Amino acid sequence: MREPVDLRRRRILAAVQSRGAARVRDLAAELQVSVVTIRRDVEELTREGKLRRGHGVVRSTLPAQEVPGTSVADGDTVAVVVPERHSYLYETLHGARTALEEAGLRIALHIAPQVPGAERPQVERALAEGVRGVLLAPRWRTPAAEEADHEWLADLGVPTVLMERRPRKGSALHAMDSVCSDHWYGAHLAVEHLVGLGHRRIVFATRDDSPTARSLRAALGEVAEAHPLVEEWAWALSSPAAGEGGSTDLVALLRELGATAAVLHGDVDALMLVQQLAESGVRVPQDCSVVAYDDVVAGLGTPRLTAVSPPKGEVGRVAAELLLRRLERSGNGALASVQRIELLPTLMVRDSTGQPPRAEMSV
């Protein structure tokens, strides 16, 4: 005989309130009903204000002091692996943390040192500790470093999502879940903003030591080359430490090209260029407009820098939610298509961009 709906929902409510939190699939097993049925019950109990839902987890709405001490079951841990000293990806980490903690999962944070192949031992250590899934943002300073990681990453054996990394098409990792910013669109925003102000000669300076840097370099060149109003453009490394090919004196390059604007990846290099221009008697934005790419500290400069702002925290949150769905479906034996998600950056217009001077800039 089928159990009355009201009785089943009372049992669900009692189970969650006794623990503080419970997984949907565990409730389904205990009550011997389908996950779909439990979800419907939880949705109604949530509507009534008796429960709170997360990804695959249900929480009590009772104040903490009224709920017996609880802890997430052993093994309910997700590893998050990010590079050492990478403020951009730390913002991504915070976005992921919020989603994972709301779902009742512990986070095992692993910081990969700045040496080739540093991510693999961190991931292997996490797997040995029994994590259920992995969120990963490899540094991948060079294409060769990325290629070296393909084989072992493709065979981890637990749900894994790459953050701000888009594996090469046709590679062993093409069929791995990933969430990243659409850097082509970010390049498009920067160029369109400057062209709209009247700039026709632009210098681009990017890093060359990460997949993001290489993608952005290619995107800026493609957008500028195709734009009918861009008369001249040039590319250089944004700083001596930005890659293996040395660097160009950006002030000299601006003079040589007669450029009135520059786009730099990332914020610190853009702030340094503003200082170098000031030392040469060039005013920003009156004589030269500057756009930063990253928007981690761009708004703290003098002047405050206009910047392309990738959705850093959102990338982490969406990656975590994708991993949570993958974990839930794997627990139910369900399969789902691999997803390669791109999120669009925004342009933060501040004080470092304006109309070009009537005469060509004199640097």
Number of helices: 11
Q: State which percent range the strand residues make up.
A: 15-25%
| Main beta-sheet annotation | 6 strands, parallel
Shape: elongated
User: How far is the N terminus from the C terminus?
Assistant: 86 Å
Spatial ordering of strands, largest sheet: 5-4-6-7-8-14
pLDDT averaged residue by residue: 87
Indicate the low-confidence ranges by residue numbers. Answer: 64-74
Strand-and-helix sequence, N→C?
Answer: HEHHEEEHEHEHEEHEHEHEHEEHEE
CA gyration radius, whole angstroms: 25 Å
Helix content: 25-40%
Q: Which structural class do the helices and strands define?
A: alpha/beta
Q: Can you offer a commentary on this structure?
A:
The chain has 363 residues and is α/β, with parallel strands linked by helices. It is 40% helix and 19% strand. The chain is built from 11 helices and 15 strands. It has helices at residues 5-19, 24-31, 35-47, 87-102, 119-128, 143-153, 183-197, 211-226, 250-257, 267-279, 312-331, and strands at 21-23, 51-53, 57-60, 77-83, 106-112, 133-136, 160-163, 177-181, 201-206, 232-237, 261-265, 289-293, 306-309, 340-343, 346-348. A 6-stranded parallel beta sheet has the order 5-4-6-7-8-14, sandwiched between helices. A 6-stranded mixed beta sheet has the order 10-9-11-12-13-15, sandwiched between helices. Helix 4 (87-102) links the parallel strand 4 and strand 5 (106-112). The longest helix is centred in the C-terminal third of the chain and has 20 residues, at 312-331. The relative contact order is 0.12. The model is unreliable at 64-74 (pLDDT under 50).
